[in-house]
Each structure stands twice: as structure tokens, then as C-alpha cells.
Design a protein that fits this description.
By secondary structure, the chain is of the alpha/beta class. Helix content is 37%, strand content 18%. The chain is globular and about 65 Å long.
Length: 401
């Protein structure tokens, strides 16, 4: 059986329909993710739940696998269900999912990424008509999104999905041209960043990074240690730079052992600092001089937005949604994926020119605040959920906003 728990206070009662069937209680949104753990998608989900109007939306989270202590970040009442799906095909999973949706009785289900596709049919059979499916990025095993079985599964689920959402125009184009989803069903909902929490400011570098040599230039990156993030390319690039350049990698994951081995093989252990998972990311970003995102594939990176909001110049690979965030030569520099020489050249250019770093960082902060605030993200999702609900005969409140 699926397990469940409540984060925050008790979930308010579901209530009921008003006069003439008009939906007069908050809309119940059930978010389906693979696992509620540290990650960009999950961080964005928490930000969304915290920002949407609680008078209009009540949230539930269904984990295809399970939830971790990351759930403690939620301060609003959210019921969390864990389906504990085994790896590979598991017929019993679909029955558990159906029972879960029957118990939760959501008005709208928002599944995310490949793992979420398995929950679309159970939700529909449980009586949910308003279904949204979101694509947030690709994996290292399929950076181009060309897996024929997965894309066939997306097409087969398409008739049950009212709206496909993506976090970048690049992913939207992939859905329509490669996967074959009708363009009228696809909508881009860009991620947002908390520009108050992530903002420029002074920080005692030694207090957050430990002691570094005088004059050190810190290249930093934040994210899970996964092959798709391209950290080994970054290590190889830093190995080509001068002794004053130090690399700080924040995060944990399956690539940690391989990454440590690459650092040792390059002989730069004194200049590379693997900090693991940290809870003080805003302070860490303020201690960096340059932010680098060397991903092989990407949707819209939350950490890239956080770095921009902090006023950092960015060096990123020109993949996925990165070029939609970074304006080449104005807010940062873009390089091809897996290009060690190109990445080293870009990093060296910024490491040796403090004036350029400052100019790009100011422009990056301005762009993040103007176009990618978390408040703007919440408005975009509010509009999407409201329109989908209306298409399915539901209203968020008596006025139908």
C-alpha cells in the first residue's frame, strides 16, 4: 500500500461544490514527482507551493518512489503520499497509484518528467479530468530526448493530458517536433528565483569556504553530482588554469567518487573543494567569483538563476534552456558542451578580468530580477491551472478567477 504523511499543519478539509455545481473551495492540485529530494525540480516545486495563493489552491504531492527530509522545507500544509515503485515494470504499482488518487480526490494532477507518465492513466481512471504533464529536463543517458520508447509513451498519454508544460522553449520545441505533441497543448512556464533570498551581499569567504590563498579566484558550481551535469569536464578545464583559480563544487550524488578520482588524477586536489550537500547556498554563492554550469543537457537551471540573482557572472554550456537565460557577452559566456578547451578559455577570460566579472554580474542580477522572479513564476502557474480547471468545468473560486 502507498504510505502517506502530512508536512506542515493538517490539510484543510476538502469542502464541496457550491450552488449550481460551481467550485467554491480551493482547487486541489496533486503534484507527481519521482522522489521528493534535493534537486532543481523539487526546489522549484517547493517555491511554487509556497507562493501560490492558499485561498485558491491546496497542494498534495505524490512520490513515485518516496520523500526524504527535503519535505521539511515545506511550510504550508501538504499531504505527501509515497508509492514506493520498484525498478522496472511493476503491475501492482498502477493499482496503488489508482487507489492513492481515489483517496486524495485531486481536482488537477500535475505529473512531471518520465517517471510521472506512469501516473497519468491511474489518475484518469480515478476520475481526474484535469491533467497537466511537465517536462523539466533530460538525463545523461538520453540528452537529446530521442528514446523511442519514452517518446511513444508520451504520445500514448497525450489524449489524457490537457496541457504539456515545459520550463524552456527548447523543451517545448522538442515536444512538438521530436515527440509529436500538438503545439496547441504545449505551454512554456519558466522557472523563477527568489530574488530576495538570492541577492548580492558581503560574506566572510573563509567562514563558508574555509581558508583560501590570498588573491584566489573562486569558480563555483552547485547541483547534484550526476553525469548529466558535466562536472568532470569542469575539473579538466580548471586543471588547465593558473594556480590562483580554485574550484568549489557543492552537492552530492552518484558521481562523487568518479569526480574525486578525476581531481586526484589531474593533480589539483589543493585547488578543488568538494563540499557535499549544503544548506547555506545563498552564502556560498556570495563567496564565489564566477558561477559555472557545465551540463551536457539542461532544462532551466534553478541554480543558474540563483547565481544570476546573486550577481555572479556565469559560464554555462549552450544546451537546453541555458541560452534562454544567459545573454552571451552581456550576462555571461556560453560554451559548447563537453568542450574542455572552450570552457577553460572562458573561465580564464573571467578569472583574469575583475572588471568584466563585475559588469556581467550586475547585468545578470538585473535580468534575473526583471524576467525570472519567483513571483512571476507563480503567476504563470496560477494562470495555467486556472485555465485548465475552467476547460474541465471547474472554477478556482466563485468568481472564476
Amino acid at each position: 500500500m502507498a504510505s502517506s504523511r502530512v508536512s506542515g499543519d493538517r490539510v484543510p478539509p476538502a469542502g464541496g461544490s457550491g450552488v449550481n455545481g460551481i467550485h467554491q473551495r480551493p482547487l486541489r492540485i496533486c503534484h507527481v514527482v519521482y522522489r521528493l529530494a534535493t534537486g532543481g525540480l523539487e526546489n522549484g516545486l517547493v517555491n511554487l507551493i509556497e507562493r501560490l495563493d492558499p485561498a485558491r489552491f491546496v497542494h498534495q504531492i505524490v512520490c513515485v518512489d518516496r520523500a526524504t527530509d527535503f519535505a521539511r522545507r515545506l511550510t504550508r500544509p501538504v499531504e505527501i503520499a509515497e508509492l514506493r515503485k520498484r525498478s522496472g515494470f511493476e503491475a501492482a504499482f498502477y493499482l496503488r497509484a489508482w487507489r492513492c488518487f481515489r483517496r486524495l480526490r485531486p481536482d488537477l494532477v500535475h505529473t512531471r518528467n518520465t517517471a510521472g507518465l506512469d501516473c497519468i492513466l491511474p489518475a484518469r481512471l480515478a476520475g481526474v479530468r484535469a491533467i497537466v504533464h511537465g517536462e523539466h529536463g533530460r538525463t545523461a543517458g538520453d540528452p537529446g530526448g530521442l528514446n523511442p520508447r519514452h517518446n511513444l509513451f508520451r504520445r500514448l498519454n497525450s489524449p489524457m493530458v490537457r496541457r504539456f508544460t515545459t520550463v524552456s522553449a527548447d523543451l517545448a520545441d522538442w515536444l512538438t517536433t521530436t515527440v509529436g505533441i500538438a503545439a496547441r497543448k504545449v505551454q512554456v512556464l519558466m522557472n523563477g528565483v527568489d530574488t530576495e533570498r538570492f541577492a548580492p551581499g558581503g560574506v566572510e569567504r573563509g567562514a563558508v569556504l574555509g581558508q583560501l590563498p590570498d588573491g584566489a579566484v573562486v569558480v563555483g558550481t552547485v547541483g547534484r553530482l550526476d553525469p548529466v551535469k558535466g562536472h568532470t569536464t569542469l575539473v579538466s578545464a580548471v586543471a588547465r588554469l593558473g594556480e590562483k583559480v580554485h574550484l568549489v563544487i557543492v552537492g552530492d550524488g552518484p558521481e562523487r567518487g568518479r569526480l574525486a578520482a578525476a581531481v586526484a588524477a589531474a593533480g589539483i586536489g589543493a585547488r578543488v573543494h568538494l563540499l557535499g550537500e549544503r544548506s547555506d547556498v545563498p552564502a556560498l554563492l556570495r563567496a564565489f567569483d564566477i558561477f559555472c554550469l557545465p551540463s551536457r543537457a539542461e532544462g532551466i537551471s534553478n541554480t543558474l538563476l540563483e547565481a544570476m540573482a546573486t550577481g555572479l557572472p556565469v559560464v554555462a554550456t549552450a544546451v537546453g534552456g541555458n541560452p534562454e537565460l544567459v545573454v552571451e557577452g552581456k550576462t555571461g559566456l556560453l560554451v559548447p558542451a563537453a568542450d574542455v578547451a572552450g570552457l577553460a578559455t572562458a573561465l580564464d577570460r573571467l578569472a583574469s578580468d575583475a572588471a568584466t566579472r563585475a559588469r556581467l554580474g550586475v547585468a545578470a542580477r538585473r535580468r534575473a530580477a526583471a524576467e525570472f522572479s519567483v513571483e512571476q513564476m507563480a503567476i504563470r502557474y496560477d494562470t495555467c491551472y486556472t485555465l485548465v480547471a475552467r476547460e474541465c468545468g471547474l472554477r478556482v473560486d466563485p468568481e472564476g478567477r
